[in-house]
Amino acid sequence: MTNISLDGLRRVFGSTVAVDSFNLEIASGEMVALLGPSGCGKTTTLRMITGLLAPSSGDIRFDGQSVLSIPTEKRGAVLVFQKHLLFPTMTVAQNVGFALKMAGIAKSEIDRRVNEMLELVELGGFGPRSAHELSGGQQQRVALARGLIARPKVLLLDEPLANLDANLRITMRQLIRDIQAELGITSIFVTHDQEEAVMLADRVVLMLDGIVQQSGEPKSFYDRPRTSAVARFFRNANFLAGHRDGNVIRTAIGDLEIDPSSSGDKSGPVVLTVRPERAGLRENSQEPNCVPARVKTNIYMGTFVELIVEIEGSEWHIQAGPGCELKPGDSTSIHLPKDAIWILEDDLPPSNAVDTEPATAEHER
Ligand SMILES: Nc1ncnc2c1ncn2[C@@H]1O[C@H](COP(=O)(O)OP(=O)(O)OP(=O)(O)O)[C@@H](O)[C@H]1O
Ligand SMILES: [Mg+2]
To answer: Closest Cα partner for 154 from 57, 55, 67?
Structure first.
């Protein structure tokens, strides 16, 4: 069991700051998802943890001991890549047992552990097959088995499911989760897919442009995004500027009541957000926290309808039931439940926000 500390980790390539001020404590046996868009520094972070790349500054500790002077092969951190690079001319069993063979372990012991690993990744009986005779998902599982067989202290997974189709990804996610829990191995799973991150991990760390933006349990990224950048990454583009006055936010679309226990602490000029799935449709706008809106687009998504509506010149995304038949041009009313209104830390109104001035009397209902 190993805990990991990243302390002020930074890596610079020429004038590119790939990773900066990265502080993180990962508990023994924890599964953390490191989430972020392409180029934000995820792989660079993993390469530093394995020892394939030296940090420009900062420290990496396993169980409190700095590992910076320990070479990769002795660090005990295994990296499984997106592209499963199996040895094509070897059998599955030879691929999985490769590290043990290099370490000079007896053949009978290798055979026993290879079989154990193949059972774990649900490939029992595949040992004699040639590696190139496998499907993509099976190859990925062999790569996982090959990484795990040396009983690493730390498992690092760099977008291991990116090449797989949607159904196989779901199956593999569950398999990885189950294996990780069974072995109790401290793990970091890198992905750019926020759904994958929240489904897999105990804790999510969101990185943008080399900087950690927010770290916490998966739900907090939906309920309590720190900034509009975090909210946007989690597919929310509903923002509105206003002025908080006690438990009311005065906005250009009217006064909105908020629930202080679920809205955040900030007062004065604020930017609020409501997730698309938390906003509702109403027949009329007489209820508190209802605002008139005009439908711009109705996109059928199978299990729900994504409505894009215009509210006083700004665009909002609303998730309606799959039977919603509102058409472009229709008038409707949007309900922003008071416990769904969350105040962001940002000072500046994001691009779709309306005027920052407190609402005037004529805007108020
Ligand atoms: N060896 C290198 N030399 C120069 N720049 C590099 C090097 N490796 C990474 N970078 C730069 O550092 C930044 C972070 O790269 P990194 O590979 O860590 O991103 P990533 O989050 O893994 O992206 P992706 O999701 O596309 O794999 C990028 O701007 C990249 O161009
Ligand atoms: Mg990468």
So the answer is: 67
The reply to whether 317 and 212 lie within a common domain is: no
Measured between its terminal Cα atoms, the distance across the chain in Å is: 60
Ligand 1 site residues (CB inside 6 A) read 13, 16, 18, 36, 38-44, 192
What is the full DSSP assignment across 29-47? T-EEEEE--TTSSHHHHHH
CB 312 within 8 A of CB 251: no
pLDDT band at 71 (very low <50, low <70, confident <90, very high): very high
Per the structure, how many domains does the chain have? 2
Q: Is the pLDDT of residue 162 over 70?
A: yes
pLDDT in tens, 310-329: 988 889 999 999 999 999 99
Other beta carbons within 10 Å of 250: 17
Distance (angstroms) between ligand 2 centre and the Cα of 45 equals: 9
Query: What Rg value do the Cα atoms of the chain yield, rounded?
Result: 25
Q: Which residues fall inside 5 Å of ion ligand 2, going by CB? A: 43
Whether 284 has a pLDDT exceeding 80, the answer reads no
Q: Which of 162, 193, 223 is the last residue of a domain?
A: 223
The average pLDDT across 114-141 equals: 90
pTM to 2 decimal places: 0.88
Q: Which residue has the tokens 């500790």?
A: 61
Q: Which amino acid is at 54?
A: A
